[in-house]
Amino acid sequence: MKPRVLQLFTSGINCDRELRYAFELAGASVKVMHIRELIENPAAIRDCELFAIPGGFTYGDDLGAGRILGLEIARFLATELEELHARGGSIFGVCNGFQALVKSALLPRVEGVKISLTWNFSHRFECRWSRLLVAPALGHVLPVGSILPAPSAHAEGQIVLADGQHDVARLEAANAIALRYCRADGTPTSEWPDCPSGSIGAIAGLISPSGRILGLMPHPERNLSALHLPDRGAGAWGTGQEGVAFFRGLVAPYLANVTS
User: Fold this and answer.
1) What residues in the chain have per-residue pLDDT under 50?
2) Terminal CA-CA length for the chain
3) What pLDDT sits at residue 258?
4) Looking at 15, 48, 95, 182, which residue is catalytic?
5) Of 63, 118, 129, 154, which has the fewest beta carbons less than 10 angstroms from its beta carbon?
6) Residue 25 falls inside a structural domain
7) Collapsing DSSP states into helix, strand and coil, what is residue 81?
8) Would you say residue 260 lies in a domain?
């Protein structure tokens, strides 16, 4: 058996095929279930090692990006997801999936830190390639200090914290910052265009203290080949294998438990 990924689907999700392909390329098997099926049978989560939420614009983001899906997750799926996490499973969300993890309080899991995602500092939808610096908290997935190139495509991607830089320090102390937007030389930055959202602390992704609940705004599932890169592998945006390495790192703990 391969590591089992259960991937959520609902109205407005539009990155599900890319995410499924990325996990399959990394060696996992993927089962897709609609949120309504999961609400009727949340115990289905017990049959996976990793639960994934793709990107998109769930329910049109009419009440805020990821808010309705986040409420559904908190109301109907939180108990099973917490049990999945407690037995060593992982939870992953990208873009709108990350927003839903935050809105359902599955992230950042750092006491006293109040967080939300709001409109980009530019006040417009941003669709551009970004470079993500791997922080120590994500060192079990990718080498610390390496750069993960990935496209950003969001309007409400700016991470805001109730207590500003004090909360950034709390997140750092809790080892909860997974990825930061950076320049080509690897210097973290909150400035546009290298940081499309203007997120405080240049934060692009958060991770739980356990290292097994992870969310990020840019889309690594859209960087699985040199042909996906804006320069077609000329060198400025990496090799096109960084996204593959990212997903292999996510499923690696469960590959170790697989017997053929």
Assistant:
1) 259-260
2) 6
3) 60
4) 95
5) 63
6) yes
7) helix
8) no
Encoded tokens for 211:
């290292």
Tell me, yes or no, if 221 is annotated catalytic.
yes
Residue 46 domain flag = yes
Which residue in the list 85, 154, 219, 228 is annotated as catalytic? 219
Q: Is 49 a catalytic residue?
A: no
Share of the chain above pLDDT 70, in %: 98
Q: Is residue 109 part of a domain?
A: yes
pTM listed for this prediction: 0.96
Strands 90-94 and 213-216: parallel
The CATH number of the domain holding residue 77 is 3.40.50.880
**Dihedral sign of CA atoms 245, 249, 251, 255 in order:** positive
Residue 242 is a catalytic residue: no
Q: Is the peptide bond before 193 cis (omega within 30 degrees of 0)?
A: yes
Domain range for 14: 4-255
Tokens of 111: 């006491």
d(CA 146, CA 239): 13
> How many domains does the chain divide into?
1
Catalytic option among 18, 49, 221, 242: 221
* Integer Cα distance of 64 and 145 in angstroms: 33
Q: How far apart are CA 27 and CA 22, in angstroms?
A: 9
